[in-house]
Write a structure and sequence with these properties.
- The protein is an alpha/beta fold and 140 residues long.
- The chain contains five helices and seven strands; from the N terminus they run H-H-E-H-H-E-E-E-E-E-H-E.
- Strand 2 and strand 3 form a beta hairpin.
- The relative contact order is 0.10.
- The mean pLDDT is 91.
């Protein structure tokens, strides 16, 4: 008895019609093919959350990151703050208003050797200790 392939030699589609012999045509596709069409009921039954978005994304106009600066950066740019009007020099000490300069938080990386009176909305514990050790003060 000849095999099916031999039997259909010379016939264009080997008895499968036009699309059945090509790739995954007869089974409706591979993977997630047809989830919005002929596989819609299967998708709704077993994977309802497949399409669409989940969760909540805050608008970027609401989200704002804190602008932070270290003690090292502040001590290096004290004269610049004086020239811009964010700081005032009182003898050997400086009075710096970081809130007006647009800085939200002062961090404690680095050293400071000048007495500085700082006005800032947030400050780390190590920064506060270093400023007070150098003879300055912090106003929040």
């Amino acid at each position: 008895m000849p095999s099916r392939t031999k039997k259909f030699r010379g016939l264009r589609t080997h008895g499968r019609g036009k699309k059945a012999g090509r790739g995954a045509g007869i089974i409706g596709g591979h993977g997630n093919a047809g989830l919005g069409k002929h596989e819609k009921l299967r998708m709704l039954k077993y994977d309802r959350e497949h399409f669409g978005r989940r969760g909540f994304k805050r608008p970027q106009c609401v989200v704002s990151a804190n602008r932070v600066i270290n003690i090292k950066e502040m001590s290096e740019s004290l004269e610049e703050y004086v020239s811009l009007g964010f700081a005032v020099r009182n003898g050997n000490a400086y009075s710096v208003n970081l809130t007006e300069a647009g800085i939200d938080k002062l961090l404690g990386v680095g050293e400071i050797d000048v007495a500085v009176n700082v006005t800032v909305s947030q400050i780390s514990a190590s920064a506060k200790a270093k400023i007070e050790a150098s003879g300055g003060s912090v106003a929040e």
